[in-house]
Amino acid sequence: MPEQQRPPQKQELPGSEAAMTPRPESLPPGGYKGAGKLAGKVAIVTGGDSGIGPAVAALFAREGADLAVLYLEEHEDAAETKVLVEEARRRCLLLPGDVGSRRYCRDAVGKVIREFGRLDVLVNNAGEQHVAQELEKISEEQLTRTFRTNIFGYVFMTQAALPHLAESAAIINTTSVTAYKGNPVLIDYSATKGAIVAFTRSLAMKLAERKIRVNAVAPGPIWTPLIPASFPPDHVAKQGANVPLGRAGQPWEVATSFVFLASKDASYMTGQVLHPNGGTIVNG
Q1: Which residues fall within 8 angstroms of residue 122, CB to CB, at 6 or more apart?
Q2: What pTM was computed for the model?
Q3: Cis peptide before 14 (omega within 30 of 0)
Q4: Catalytic residue among 104, 180, 189, 268
Q5: Mean pLDDT by 10-residue block, N- to C-terminus, for the chain (284 residues)?
Q6: Which domains does the chain have, with CATH numbers?
Q7: Does the annotation mark 189 as catalytic?
């Protein structure tokens, strides 16, 4: 469906890919041919049920990795992610639960090690956002929940993974263009994304001596379930129209950045942020 024909639509949070028109694209048109960049590796992808997560899992699998896909509760979408991985003849372990719980993160990593015997790549991608027209309307519950998922979850997952990561392992965090530009109706969400940038840079410095690389990806407007689940239908229909490329990106167009950062191609990069955002100029 051409970008300009995307219909107005609305969902309830956290949103589902199955209800979106058109469906987000986890793979490029015509498919994706891997080059063995992650052959023999094991990766965890959080937030792997919809949006960017399934695209990362799909491309990682086509590059030779086995996957553990962590997600909250959208079982139908997560099952489709598993299909994408298994189509590439790789193994996929689905682990539902809340990354905002330190216990869940420890248990999930333990299951990954028991299933696959190793861990090479951690992708911290789970996130949530809630629109608030006024700062005063951000409740304590919303503020706590957004920070618990978007930054506490990244810390908890990394804490759980670190004992199992060896030299040349990679950690990749999903931040956002809002960390650099801000967003007047996503103030708490933008704040968490700024925290992820600082977390990425600080952790990269800390883990450099262990030869573990830590980088991040800061997407711009991407067609994911968070969009129809967060914004009014007229906004959804026009999402991405204001960036230089004039359209929203597809999840696979972001996932290629994760492939690069997870592979040896990025062996001399740590503490950095890639910006697949349709041409938006950011500082930092």
Answers
A1: 43, 44, 157, 158, 161, 165, 169, 170, 171, 172
A2: 0.92
A3: yes
A4: 189
A5: 60 70 88 97 96 97 98 94 98 98 98 98 96 94 97 98 98 98 96 98 98 98 76 71 91 98 98 97 82
A6: 35-274 (3.40.50.720)
A7: yes
